[in-house]
Specification:
- This protein is an alpha+beta fold.
- Helices cover 56% and strands 8% of the residues.
- It is built from 28 helices and ten strands.
- It has helices at residues 2-17, 22-35, 49-52, 54-57, 59-77, 79-91, 95-110, 115-132, 138-152, 160-173, 183-204, 215-218, 241-244, 285-293, 340-344, 379-386, 407-422, 425-436, 441-446, 451-464, 472-476, 479-497, 500-509, 517-532, 537-555, 559-571, 581-587, 594-619; strands at 225-230, 252-259, 262-264, 278-283, 297-301, 319-323, 346-353, 356-358, 372-377, 392-393.
- The strands form two sheets. It has a five-stranded antiparallel sheet, covered by helices on one side. The chain has a five-stranded antiparallel sheet with strand order 8-7-9-6-10.
- A hairpin with a 2-residue loop joins strand 2 and strand 3.
- Helix 10 (160-173) runs antiparallel to helix 26 (559-571).
- The radius of gyration is 27 Å and the shape is globular.
Length: 623
């Protein structure tokens, strides 16, 4: 038991510090559980090799994998973006209508498409709504993330956390979640949470991003942008842009070359520099001074706005924000090691990481999930970034490449995936048998399938109908999520089998001497919310559910009520930007600080803790 607690502590430290990616941490946990529980040595964890790897074959893991693919199929049709644009058409410049559009689209849709890709799809849509409607994106992006969490609690498939919690509930209580098990409470949470965001929440949000979009001023990079003229006797005359500056010695980039009133932007790596060329540099003052002192360049001026960095001949924007999602090849890499510039003919002017704006020595900084890069690139490079699942470009492409003709197929497939799970076919068969005398019960009952089966069938249907191409299946899966689930599921098993859950349950159950059962349930909700704020929501479910069930058993309460409280708390993590991936998606584009999530999320978390606990008592009872 002590060893298991030690592994849990190690996992928590690694999750919080991000010394290792979360999926690698999960695999490390799996390895430790198996090594310390292997046959032939002292069995500290009581986890065999078969149990240690069972997370890969677990129904929750495979179901989440299938749902990620289905969500990708829906997004490739453009249906979510189309709905978002139609809602924005009525929003105009009215903030209340913009909030209603944002919440009204992201909330309900997240009940049927995994909420993480929904936010990834809608970040550029909502950003464009804000800028066109003369509103700061900061007023809309946190509401987008939070509303997607509300919507994720409408159905079993709204979030991977629900699917995992259902699997754990089935193992502990023999009570998996049905498709609409908690929809009635989810609707209440959606309505109450939406009302909060519409009335109080947005007033607590500062306008971190200026209403008028100007990235140069927003990222405060004016002093890092300089215009210089190449001297006649400069040693860089005759060299290419790519080789003109020694990046080992100088932290600088050539962004543009201006020659005879003609402006050149990326790709300019192979363009030869001539005497008299005007170069627009990204470099700090010390670096520029060194160039001038060496008589390499002559100082000319500094661009002060984004417009000065965008050639008049190019109508499309050349400065864009790019969010790094989970699963991107950039995560854990630096700009130098990832060869980002060479791959996309793009230059990073600055980036935001966990609320910090980085403008110097960017090449060696490790990039993390949720980091937002300010990128300058040619329009075709921006389009390539937009079409790559490794990035979320925070504005919509002018001519999006959607498979809109496949919308009916995709919608029908998702309806089938949900319908075959949700419809009580046995009851329908019994009714038919009573009305017609035909023994239809057995046939209709056979149609009732688990979500695992219908989701995998949906994947096949997506490919068969052309909604997805076969090669796109693998790109659609967030493999770090899959490895995270596979790695932490055995940790929950070890917590149960070693008696760790019993011990923790006994400690929490002691509060029953001072609190009513409803109070203990509320404590579990708050504790889960706090833990989820610093580690993965899926990890918090695995750790908290066994303890919650054991606590309920010891105080004579309804264990399913405790399962629901933990599930809702883990799936609605508002307090920090790192507790839930959708918060990371909006962190950079919204220009938020860590405290913004606390300011808006803490009152919301308290409000929903009361609403959720009372709702569980009303619908399911706690005793």
């Amino acid at each position: 038991m002590v060893v298991v607690f030690g592994i849990i502590l190690l996992a928590l430290v690694l999750f919080v510090t991000e010394l290792l990616p979360i999926d690698v941490t999960a695999i490390l946990v799996m390895v430790l559980l198996m090594v310390l529980g292997a046959d032939g040595v002292v069995n500290f964890t009581q986890i065999s090799t078969a149990e240690g790897t069972s997370g890969f074959s677990n129904s929750a893991t495979i179901t989440v994998l299938a749902m990620l693919i289905l969500s990708s199929g829906i997004s490739r049709t453009g249906v979510v973006q189309i709905v978002g644009r139609k809602m924005s058409a009525f929003a105009g410049e009215d903030l209340d209508k913009q909030l209603l559009a944002t919440i009204g689209v992201s909330g309900p849709i997240s009940g049927f498409i995994n909420n993480t890709p929904v936010v990834a799809i809608l970040v550029p849509v909502v950003s464009d709504i804000a800028h066109k409607g003369k509103t700061s994106p900061s007023k809309l992006l946190i509401p987008l993330s939070y509303a997607s969490m509300f919507g994720g609690m409408l159905t079993l498939i709204g979030t991977s956390t629900n699917i995992l919690a259902s699997d754990v509930s089935a193992r502990l209580l023999d009570h998996p979640f049905s498709m609409f098990e908690f929809t009635k409470l989810g609707i209440i949470v959606l309505l109450v949470g939406s009302a909060y965001l519409m009335t109080v929440g947005h007033r607590l949000l500062p306008e971190r991003v200026p209403v008028e979009e100007d990235y140069v001023q927003e990222y405060a990079i004016e002093e890092y942008l300089t215009e210089v003229v190449v001297n006649d006797d400069s040693p860089i005359v005759g060299t290419t842009v790519e080789k003109a500056i020694d990046h080992v010695e100088f932290d600088a980039d050539i962004l543009q070359v201006v020659r005879d009133d003609e402006e050149f932007i990326e790709p300019i790596g192979q363009k030869t520099i001539r005497a008299g060329d005007l170069l627009r540099l990204r470099a700090d003052r010390d670096t520029v001074r060194q160039f001038v002192d060496r008589e390499t360049l002559t100082l000319s001026g500094s661009p002060e706005t984004a417009a000065e960095l965008e050639p008049d001949e190019v109508p499309d924007r050349t400065l864009v924000e790019v969010v790094v999602p989970r699963g991107s090849f950039l995560v854990g890499e630096s700009l130098e090691s990832s060869t980002f510039r060479q791959r996309y003919d793009a230059t990073v002017l600055a980036f935001r990481s966990r609320g910090e704006t980085v403008r110097e020595d960017m090449d060696e900084r490790r990039i993390r999930v949720g980091d937002t890069l300010l990128v300058q690139a040619a329009p075709d490079s921006v389009d390539r970034l937009s079409q790559n699942d490794d990035f979320i470009v925070a504005h919509e492409p002018e001519e999006p490449d959607y498979r809109s003709e496949k919308i009916p197929h995709a919608v029908a497939i998702m309806a089938g995936v949900v319908g075959f799970v949700a419809v009580p076919w046995g009851a329908v068969g019994a009714a038919l048998a009573g009305a017609t005398g035909v023994a239809a019960f057995e046939v209709m009952s056979a149609l009732s399938l688990p979500i695992l089966v219908t989701a995998l069938a949906g994947v096949v249907a997506m490919v068969a109908t052309g909604v997805l191409k076969p090669t796109e299946i693998y790109d659609a899966v967030e493999w770090d999520v899959i490895f995270l689930l596979a790695g932490i599921i055995p940790l929950g098993m070890a917590l149960e089998q070693t008696g760790g859950a019993d011990l923790l349950g006994s400690l929490v159950a002691a509060t029953g001497a001072y609190l009513p059962v409803l109070g203990v349930l509320w404590v579990f909700y708050l504790a889960t919310g706090l833990i989820t704020g610093v580690i993965s929501n899926n990890a918090s479910v695995v750790l908290m559910l066994p303890v919650a069930v054991e606590t309920a058993n010891q105080i004579g309460a309804n264990p399913f009520a405790f399962v629901l409280a933990v599930t809702f708390a883990a799936s609605t993590a508002f307090l920090t930007p790192v507790g839930y991936q959708t918060n990371l998606f909006v962190y950079g584009p919204g220009g938020y600080k860590f405290t913004d999530f606390v300011r808006v999320g803490a009152p919301l978390q308290l409000l929903l803790s009361v609403v959720t606990v009372l709702g569980i008592e009303f619908f399911w009872g706690v005793a």
